[in-house]
Amino acid sequence: MSQGRHVAIIGAGAVGVISAIEALREGHRVTLIDAGEPGGEQAASYGNAGWLSSHSVIPPAEPGVWKKVPGYLMDPLGPLAIRWSYLPKALPWLIKYLLSGWTEARVEKTAFALRDLLKDAPLLHRKLAEEAGVPELVERNGVMHVFPSRGNFDNDLGWRLRKKVGVEWMELNADEMRQREPDLHPRYTFGVVVEEAGRCRDPGAYVAALAQHALASGARLVHAKATGLKLSGNKLVAVVTETGEIACDAAVVAAGAHSKRLTASVGDSLPLETERGYHVMIENPESGPRSSMMASDAKMVANWTNKGLRAAGTVEIAGLEAAPNWQRAEILRDHLLSMFPKLPRDIPASRVKMWFGHRPSMPDGRPCIGYSRASHDIVYAFGHGHVGLVGSARTGRLVAQLLSGKPPEIPLAPFSPNRFL
Predict the structure, then answer these.
(1) Residue 302's CB: how many other CB atoms inside 10 A?
(2) I want to staple 377 with a disulfide (CB 3.0 to 4.6 A). Which of 97, 124, 236, 347 is the partner?
(3) What is the block-wise mean pLDDT of the chain (421 residues), using blocks of 10 residues?
């Protein structure tokens, strides 16, 4: 494959815009295609928790999770909820999801693969932020996990596997936690700090800045909804949009949760699902964490952003079309109030912002990064689930390497779209 191809990148989220930057660096001509504005509220990138957690290597499904499925169906407000009306459609994905975490060996395989993808991600993002003129949006200052007891940590398979794949951390007892986080509720008595991790202070603004950097570097942005890919034999000739065709030599499908219909247009039926996520943000909060933090009991990240204190987490399986259940965002708010007792209980509604969006998720917790079966002119880069923002930096580099026919910098077999075909 030669350099200088015309590459159409479908999706201007974190993965798409970084793929554009890296493809331009390789000498390709780039057209970004997205119906929305990069970094806009419609995008999963906008509502991200803001963690650049290079240690997020554990997939959602772990051994024994199948025992919890009845509870997920019965509790619409739990950490993972499944709407009854969507269950028949979601069932094939859910079966693959449960099987992917059936044994510790399967989870370990994913942990090693994700470690390759995420290692050094905060550094890669910092360099990109500097290039885009927004270095202040990416901080490499570690993140904290807090637990009600040491036992909650010791009994967590995820931390045993993190150690196995090379993640290091510092442990804190109750007194050390109080010194670092005086506003945190005293029920938390044990913590760990992962110093290699970082955070983004405004994911939406960061993605918008990266998109502007791509445009300033020569990319073109077309506001249109892509509906398919057009082949002539095994050669790509165009991306089909609702407003017409865009001729190109290569394409990248980085449309997040909306990628499924695009892959289907060339015969690749992939088990992509949306893990619907929510966040709540308190503007000008009176209290909160000094560092970015995840609470093990709430399954929730609390992170300072430039717009306020954001809490994000939990999963809802209900498809792309169902209306939001805003009670799930209210639960995140209530968790924040519980974690930080100095936050007032009567915060005006005008200072509480809620958001809902779609995480693009493959059942085994690993994204699809690789060529389409239909043509090596088509590269897939979607399905990052809970690691979309942190994983986007290396994914963009891998996309550019695939477009240029260069050896990828990490093994891509664990991420091959063909693992489901």
Answers:
(1) 27
(2) 236
(3) 83 98 98 97 92 96 90 87 94 96 97 98 98 97 96 95 98 97 97 97 97 98 98 97 97 98 98 96 95 93 95 93 95 96 94 96 98 98 97 98 98 97 85
Cα separations (Å) of 7 from 20, 63, 143, 324? 9, 41, 37, 35
The per-residue pLDDT for 72 is 85
In this structure, the number of other CB atoms found within 10 A of the CB of residue 296 comes to: 18
> 4: phi > 0 → left, psi -120 to 50 → alpha, else beta; which?
left
- CA 16, distance to chain mean position in Å, is 13
In eight-state DSSP terms, residue 78 is S
pLDDT score, position 413: 98
Q: Which of 417, 358, 348 is nearest to 385 (CA)?
A: 358
The predicted pLDDT at position 77 comes to 87
Model pLDDT, residue 3? 60
Cβ pair 366, 113 in contact under 8 A:
yes
User: Phi-psi bin for 87: left (phi > 0), alpha (psi -120 to 50), beta?
Assistant: alpha
Helices (H), 299-352: 327-339
Q: Map 34-64 to HEC letters.
A: CCCCCCCCCCHHHHCCCEECCCCCCCCCCCC
CA-based angle 366:370:373, to the nearest 5? 115
CB atoms within 10 A of CB 330: 15
To the nearest 10 degrees (0 to 180), the angle between helices 14-25 and 388-403 is: 30
